[in-house]
Write a structure and sequence with these properties.
alpha+beta; two-stranded antiparallel ribbon; about 220 residues; four-stranded antiparallel sheet; 8 helices; binds 3-iodo-tyrosine; 6 strands; oxidoreductase; NADH Oxidase; about 15% strand
Length: about 220
């Protein structure tokens, strides 16, 4: 496609005091997002998930090839297959496969191989990377695939949180079983992450350890 540019018409400029307020408010809003592991089975309309995936699809990415695919799962039998297979993998992981150091580092989170939320939560969103994209029947190479899909996944989590949903990132290792369950078992796509989304259960908790965030000085230098 040849180069064509359009005027930037949707940028909004705010007065600086409002910029500061917006930046602070955004921080207050995003710091209320916590990974939760107890979900209610309350239904969440598909339309909300659709809007969040559309938001994820606006993420910056290599050459705008959009190297991602999302599979949003609400079907109880697909969710129970995912739970069964994820728990089998997690049993091996917690049984020793993760290694002593990794398993030790997870202790403050109190996680284990049981993943009931994979059935309780109304939505599981499997995120896939794509090595190549199709364009009018032609295969084109994708670039910065992991960076791009990571940013899109961040956008997705932020959108789900902003919509009023609880979220969890889940990465059973290995995750290849997701390809089969989601019908995306091909040479081009790999499972990247599973996002759990829904209302938190009444008795949902947050591990105290997860609330300890590094200070600005620890995470940033200004030169
Ligand atoms: N996938 C496992 C283990 C796990 C790994 C990390 I790194 C975490 O931050 C949390 C859990 C599980 O989901 O239990």
């Amino acid at each position: 496609m040849s180069e064509q540019h359009l005027p930037l018409t949707d940028f909004i400029e705010y007065p600086q005091d409002e910029m500061i307020k917006r930046a602070e408010e955004n921080y207050q809003q995003v710091k209320r997002r916590h990974s939760i592991r107890k979900f209610s089975d309350r239904a969440v309309p598909q339309e909300i998930i659709e809007q969040c995936i559309l938001a994820a699809g606006t993420a910056p990415n290599g050459a705008n090839h959009q190297p991602w695919h999302f599979v949003a799962i609400n079907n109880p039998s697909v969710k129970s297959q995912i739970r069964e297979q994820a728990e089998a993998i997690e049993q091996a992981f917690y049984g020793g496969r993760g290694g002593e150091e990794w398993l030790d580092n997870l202790k403050p989170l109190g996680t284990n191989a049981n993943k009931p939320y994979l059935e309780h939560a109304p939505w599981l969103i499997a995120v896939f990377t794509k090595k190549r994209s199709e364009d009018n029947g032609e295969q084109k190479q994708n670039y910065y695939v992991h960076e791009s899909v990571g940013i899109a996944t961040g956008f997705l989590l932020q959108a789900l949180h902003n919509a009023g949903l609880g979220t969890l990132t889940h990465t059973p290792k290995p995750m290849s079983f997701l390809s089969k369950v989601c019908g995306r078992d091909n040479d081009n796509e790999r499972p990247y992450m599973l996002i759990v989304a829904g209302y938190p259960a009444e008795d949902a908790t947050v591990p105290a350890h997860a609330l300890e965030k590094k200070s600005l000085e620890e995470i940033c230098d200004f030169l």
